[in-house]
Amino acid sequence: MICCCVGGNDTAVGVELPMEPAPSKPKAMEKILSQPQATPLQAMIEEEWSQEEGEACRELFVGAVVVPGDTQQGLDVITLDTDDRVVVADVIEGKPWAEWNDSHPNHKCEPGDQVLSVNGQPLSFDVTRSLMHKSAKDRHISLFIRKPKENHVSFFKEKGAIMGLALVPTPGGLLFVEDVREAGLIDQWNKENPKRRVRPLDLITSVNGVSENQEEMVEALGMIGEMEIVLLTHN
């Protein structure tokens, strides 16, 4: 597992924010779609935009900030050694992306969001790290973001049963799924519910009603009885 922190605790300075994207294909997105890419990213974007426009606009958007050269943009992202997907782990208060969120309540960059491209470039973790840390007097950072969907997982956990989850806490107080182990309850759920499976890079937001407290959520996962787990996923 790799966690890339592109935030920081230095004092943020003034940030110029662009206008909120209109409910249509942003130019940056059209540029991505016009490029020849034999990749799952291209197919996924086209599939999303083939949906009814209003729904698609809620799931895909372009957010952009201007980051002064001596300031960090305030975004923590997570990926895996075996997975090129990049997911937002935390948005740090007082930084450019937090200010973007304050000014664009309908297009917030939030934990669980998947970053599909940076400055128009489809990405891997290495590309993300390179572009986000690029040194310049004023860095114009544009992220093409896909919102996650909520997944509800429920089953009965008997005494002695194994959950079968490898977890990593995120800076924002959530739990990140690193791996689903074989022969555990989650693995069994995945086999019985392939369209609602739990997978690496999912973010657990609550366990049996417990949320925003990592220790209490982990404790709830160890309890016996009915289990109700809510995750943010990109299945």
UniProtKB/TrEMBL annotation:
Superkingdom in the source lineage: Eukaryota
Domain PDZ positions: 152-235
InterPro entries cross-referenced by the UniProt entry: PDZ, PDZ_sf
Name by which UniProt lists this protein: PDZ domain-containing protein
Source organism of the structure: Alexandrium monilatum
